[in-house]
Design goal:
The chain is mainly alpha-helical. It has a domain of about 70 residues. It contains 4 helices and 2 strands, in the order ββαααα. It has a two-stranded antiparallel sheet with strand order 1-2. Strand 1 and strand 2 form a beta hairpin. Helix 1 runs parallel beside helix 3 and helix 2 crosses helix 3. The protein is globular and about 40 Å long. The chain starts with 8 loop residues before the first strand and ends in a 6-residue tail after the last helix.
């Protein structure tokens, strides 16, 4: 993608700053690849989301990506707002747990 929908890259590689970002990216691509929705429909939602944000929102690109994914899935009738809220709450707990495990591994305490 180019223009408003372009993916954040450094030296040609995709940039993800948190695990959920790569999961959101992978879900959108996998669902498109599985013919769940046309890419142009997702891209249109993404451009809308980016346009709604402040000009300095580049660091929140994948928040907009996720919002576009949610919008296209809701439009296709694949999820309800209630399902999205429930699943996001579950993932938030999972991410918090993963973050604490990785932090402990990366910075062992005294004697570790």
């Amino acid at each position: 993608m180019t223009g408003a929908g372009a993916l954040p890259r450094a030296n040609g590689e995709l940039i993800f700053t948190a695990p959920w970002e790569s999961r959101a990216f992978a879900m959108a691509v996998a669902l498109y690849s599985g013919d769940v929705y046309p890419w142009e429909r997702f891209r249109g939602h993404l451009i809308e989301q980016i346009a709604q944000g402040p000009p300095d929102a580049g660091d929140r690109y994948y928040e907009r990506w996720l919002a576009a994914l949610e919008a296209v899935l809701a439009r296709e009738g694949l999820v309800t707002p209630e399902e999205l809220r429930r699943r996001m709450a579950e993932l938030a707990v999972h991410d918090e747990h993963d973050h604490h495990e990785h932090s402990a591994d990366a910075h062992p305490g005294p004697g570790g």
